[in-house]
Amino acid sequence: MTQMTEKQDTNKEILKLHSAYQIAESFSRCTRNGFVACNLNGEITYVNKTMEELTGWHEAELIGKDITELYALPEGVLNTTDVDDALSQPAILYTRDEKKLTFPVRQTSIKKEGSEDEIDGYLTLFITNTSDVDRAQTEFVSTVSHELRTPITSIKGFASTLLHHRQKLDEEKRKKYISIIKDQAERLSRLVEDLLAVSRLESKKLQFTIQPLDIKKSIDNCVTVVQSKHNDSHTISMTTQDPLPPVWADADRLEQILTNLIDNAMKYSPEADKVDLDISVINPGENSEMMQVNITDYGIGIDQGDIDSIFGKFSRLDSPLTRTTEGTGLGLYITKSLACMLNGDVKVKSEKEKQTTFSLLLPTSPPSNKE
Ligand code: ADP
After folding, report:
1. C-alpha 46 – ligand 1 centre gap (Å)
2. DSSP code of 366?
3. Mean pLDDT across the chain
4. What number does the ligand 1 atom closest to the CA of 299 have?
5. What is the β-pairing status of strands 235-240 and 34-39?
6. Lowest mean pLDDT among 6-10, 57-61, 110-114, 317-321
7. Given ligand 1 and candidates 189, 191, 332, which is best to mutate, with the most ligand atoms within 8 Å of its CB?
8. Averaged over 155-178, what is the pLDDT?
């Protein structure tokens, strides 16, 4: 018993050597996670080494800066005073070289020294030791929330204006607001459809019925649908080799791919009046024989540097046209993934403001013959 008390006393002595600050400081140095503390005005009061490494800024440059210059937390997290316990949310960190990195964050309040309930500031922890899969998932959730929030905010805003100020609005304005609500609801529904498609793709729950198909027939079906959607704004001409072998694909997925590529060709060339389709067989007679469908438009084009990124999720290139054109940025991701699952591919060549050609490649023999 006496021995135990002596040991406890010695422990107390050792603990007294280190202040809470010293321990916290050492802890923040030995973890790979990033720490930022700020005062109640949102001015940065502390960053650890990882934070310097992640952002490219030195501690001296960050201290005193407003936290909004360093990161964006999910809406409302910092502005509430009841942020007492840790929160787990994705946040965007702005780096010195103007990149935006997404991390899950946890945030807690910092208590005033000697006080049980008075708050002095906030401590935000950027969790970096997640796996690539977790990171990708966090990024995806963050982007999806953002994409969903935009139409929802617009629907809520216009619906509330109509509800509360209906009398003050003339007939024309009312119609305009209702049509915005309808457009935004349609955007939301497209987004949900595309997200479901992505989810089915990624969970590998898609069922394919691979069969020999007449590519010309599939193209004709898609052209009719897309032309009517765009009120026949473009003439679509088709050149083809004769005779053509069948392609081995799933009929619905093939039409989904073709529709997306032809729709994009028309969407991103509003000043042009034609889209050209060319069907050919590459490497005929060889083991590597493939059907190639080229879809060429004469629209805005794509910068060489952006070519790879357009196949990513939610990738929309910034241009005045894209900003005013409906789209989710998921179409090409879905299209390329489907083509690859069908043992094919989608490639693109583009000259800015001249012409863009998307090439769809598909097998001309049944899957078993290729393997
Ligand atoms: P979206 O729903 O935005 O059309 P996509 O995944 O189909 O999404 O395309 C991704 C981005 O690639 C588009 O937002 C656009 O910036 C660019 N893009 C796609 N097709 C074309 C094209 N034919 N010409 C120029 N840019 C294109």
Report:
1. 42
2. -
3. 86
4. 24
5. unpaired
6. 6-10
7. 332
8. 93
Q: For residues 124 and 105, give the distance between their C-alpha atoms in angstroms, rounded to a whole number.
A: 7
How far apart CA 352 and CA 299 sit, in angstroms, is 8
| CA 259 / ligand 1 centre spacing (Å) | 13
Q: Residues lining ligand 1, CB < 6 A?
A: 260, 264-265, 268, 297, 299-302, 310, 315-317, 322, 327-333, 356
- Å from CA of 271 to ligand 1 middle: 16
| Span 45-63, pLDDT tens digits | 999 989 999 999 999 999 9
User: Which ligand 1 atom sits nearest the alpha carbon of residue 330?
Assistant: 6
**What percent of the chain is modeled with pLDDT above 90?**
50
Pocket test for ligand 1, best of 262, 268, 303, 347 (most atoms within 8 A of CB): 268
Distances in Å between the alpha carbon of 240 and those of 53, 137, 246, 307, 363?
56, 43, 13, 27, 17
List, in sequence order, every residue forming a beta bridge with 66; answer none if it has no partner.
Answer: 43
pLDDT at 86 over 50: no
Q: How far is the CA of 2 from the centre of ligand 1 (A)?
A: 77
**Closest listed residue to residue 106, CA positions, set 75, 135, 73:** 73
Which helix (H) or strand (E) covers residue 47, if one does?
strand 44-47
Q: Return the residue whose CA atom lies nearest to atom 13 of ligand 1.
A: 316
Tell me what pLDDT residue 7 has.
Answer: 56
> Of 8-17, 43-52, 147-156, 264-273, which range is least confident?
8-17
**pTM of the entire predicted model:** 0.66
Tokens 């001409």 identify what position?
A: 237
Task: Indicate the helix (H) or strand (E) that contains 257.
Answer: helix 251-267
CA neighbours within 13 Å on the CB side: how many for 272?
Answer: 21
303-326: average pLDDT = 86
243 cis-preceded (ω within 30 degrees of 0): yes
